[in-house]
Every structure is written in structure tokens, then in C-alpha cells.
TrEMBL record:
Protein name (record): Metal-dependent hydrolase
Originating species: Pelomonas aquatica
CDD domains named among the record's database cross-references: M48_yhfN_like
Gene3D superfamilies, per database record: Metalloproteases ('zincins'), catalytic domain (3.30.2010.10)
Record keywords: Hydrolase
A GO MF label: hydrolase activity
YgjP-like metallopeptidase domain mapped to chain residues: 56-263
Record keyword Secreted present: no
PANTHER family: UNCHARACTERIZED PROTEIN YGJP (PTHR30399), UTP PYROPHOSPHATASE (PTHR30399:SF1)
Keyword 4Fe-4S: no
């Protein structure tokens, strides 16, 4: 019998790592930690070592670098042999994390006159326009003209721009959901926008769908993937092969959009 709890679609910088690496289980409070280094080939790599109650050595590479969790009884020599054995994977993931952090820094939104942010996958420019009486979107120049004084604060600019983006998100997401619901043969009860920090969408067995309004930053193909993903949960409240077959029935190449979503670096502000 399918579970009743929401099925999340996570946005996590380490999501893809867990498919190929042992996941570190949380250490008990007060577990010993230390910073160590070793050479992997020609590269000196620092890592955090946590001693925990577990049966095996685990690795994860995230924004803070390499973390290793090992049983208390395993000697350092054995831990380092395991690190050398996984050396190629560790170096590759460290490079990927560094590149991701660089993309995140480059994508930070500056809430000021002339600031740029993604809208349906393409940049728009924020323009302070005191003479305007309402927010004006110029699709030709891709300018979002905000009726604010030239000395408006970053908070004023952000709040007005985000309110406009949220309204556009609701306008766009609803017909997408209706189209995919019909194609999948499911009934959507309600659609709500969320500002979740850790997921792009969720679905409940009663037909309720929640979508993160910040999806409006992404390309239509990525939005379609998230919409189809959540609506497919109304047929399969899991991530079984049957679930992915359901997604594929309406998006044959969904893997491409799923991977693109994992690589995106929109900064939540």
C-alpha cells in the first residue's frame, strides 16, 4: 500500500554522490573529529576524520571538502589505504565541487539597478523606473522595470521582483500541471507554491502538489521535469522502476533534465 507522506524531489549538492559512495551515518554527539592530510598522487588532500559507531569506512565529498567516517577501532593506516583506493573518485568529486562553488558564486543575484537574474533559463535585467506605476516586463529587451526610486534598497528591489516572479510562476505552473495531469491520467486537487530550501516539489496522495516558485528561474524543460515527476507520484508514491516508467511515458528524455537540475546553481535568497 503506497505511503501517504509527501514524496520530495530534493535539491542537494551531494545528491548524486550518494549513488556512488558509501553514505556517512551521523556520528554520536561528542564523536572525535580531526583534520588530516594525505597525498593522492600529486595532490595533497585535506579531510575531516570522524570516529563513529559504524562497521565500515565511509566517504562523502561536499561543499566543505572530503569527510571520512570510520569505526573507532580502524587504524589510520587502513583508513589511508581506503582513501588511496578511492583516490581517483575523490579527486574527481573535489574538482566537481570546486566548479560547482564557482558557478554558485557567479550566479549570486545582486538586487540593484542593472542586476541580472535567470528567468526561464535566460537572463533578465532589473531596471529601476520611478516613472512607472507598476512592474513592466519588456520581453524584447528582457528588462524588468520596477516602479521604485533610484535609491531603493536591495530589500525593496528583491521583494518587488520576487513578488512578480512568484505571480508569473503560478501563471505558468498551473497550465503545465493540468497538461501533464491529463497526459498521465491523474487528478490534481490543488497546486501551491513553496519557498522550500531543500526541495523543488512534493506530492501528496490526496492530489495536492507543491512546487517551488524558484523553478521560474530554470528552462521550461527543467520545469516540465519537476512537474511530471510530482504528478507521476499520484500514480506511484515511490521511486520504483514503475515510477520512472511513468515519468518516461510523458518525458522520454527526462534524464537529461534531471541531470541539468542537479547541476543548476541558483542561489536561494
Amino acid at each position: 500500500m503506497p505511503a501517504k507522506r509527501p514524496a520530495p524531489l530534493l535539491q542537494d549538492s551531494q545528491l548524486s554522490l550518494f549513488d556512488v559512495a558509501p553514505e556517512i551515518t551521523p556520528a554520536e554527539p561528542g564523536a572525535p573529529r580531526s583534520r588530516r592530510e594525505l597525498w593522492l598522487g600529486q595532490h595533497r588532500v585535506g579531510y575531516e576524520l570522524k570516529r563513529a559507531r559504524r562497521r565500515s569506512i565511509g566517504f562523502v565529498v561536499g561543499p566543505q571538502g572530503l569527510r571520512v567516517s570510520a569505526p573507532r577501532w580502524v587504524p589510520i593506516g587502513e583508513i589511508e589505504r581506503a582513501l588511496h583506493h578511492k583516490g581517483e573518485w575523490i579527486l574527481r568529486k573535489l574538482v566537481e565541487q570546486r566548479e560547482r562553488q564557482q558557478r554558485i558564486q557567479a550566479s549570486r543575484i545582486e538586487w540593484l539597478d542593472g542586476g541580472r537574474l535567470p528567468y526561464f533559463g535566460e537572463a533578465l535585467t532589473l531596471v529601476l523606473a520611478p516613472a512607472e506605476r507598476e512592474v513592466v516586463w519588456d520581453a524584447t529587451t528582457r528588462q524588468l522595470r520596477l516602479p521604485l526610486p533610484l535609491g531603493a534598497s536591495a530589500e525593496q528591489i528583491r521583494d518587488l521582483a520576487q513578488a512578480w516572479l512568484q505571480a508569473r510562476a503560478k501563471e505558468d505552473f498551473l497550465p503545465r500541471c493540468q497538461r501533464f495531469a491529463e497526459a498521465l491520467g491523474v487528478k490534481m486537487k490543488t497546486l501551491r507554491l513553496s519557498s522550500a530550501q531543500t526541495r523543488w516539489g512534493s506530492a501528496s496522495a490526496d492530489g495536492s502538489i507543491r512546487l517551488n516558485w524558484r523553478l521560474i528561474h530554470f528552462t521550461p524543460a527543467i520545469i516540465d521535469y519537476v512537474v511530471a515527476h510530482e504528478l507521476a507520484h499520484l500514480r506511484e508514491m515511490n521511486h520504483s522502476p514503475a515510477f520512472w516508467d511513468t515519468v518516461r511515458s510523458v518525458l522520454p528524455d527526462f534524464e537529461r533534465s534531471r541531470e541539468a537540475l542537479r547541476e543548476e546553481s541558483i542561489v536561494v535568497q
